[in-house]
Amino acid sequence: MAKIILYSNGCPKCKVLKAKLEAKNIPFEENNNVQELISMNIKTLPILKVDENFLNFLTANEWVNAQPNYGHLKQGN
Predict the structure, then answer these.
(1) Residue 65: inside a domain, yes or no?
(2) What residue numbers bound the domain in which 45 lies?
(3) What is the pTM for the complete model shown?
(4) What is the C-alpha to C-alpha distance for residues 19 and 73, in angstroms, rounded to an integer?
(5) What is the mean pLDDT of residues 23-39?
């Protein structure tokens, strides 16, 4: 399973991407640390980091849409 981090500031697009991840039960961490985002030179949000790949909003949506529902992981089966 890929390590997924949602870099977000709670903007409308961030909320959409977070809701899509949650709807598919895709495990992810959310990072709202502004100083860390600045130090990483991230200037637009949301950004989804999948392993070592940084995806902008449009690419992240495509990636999430292509994923299966991970409901079985959420339930611990």
Answers:
(1) no
(2) 1-50
(3) 0.87
(4) 17
(5) 94
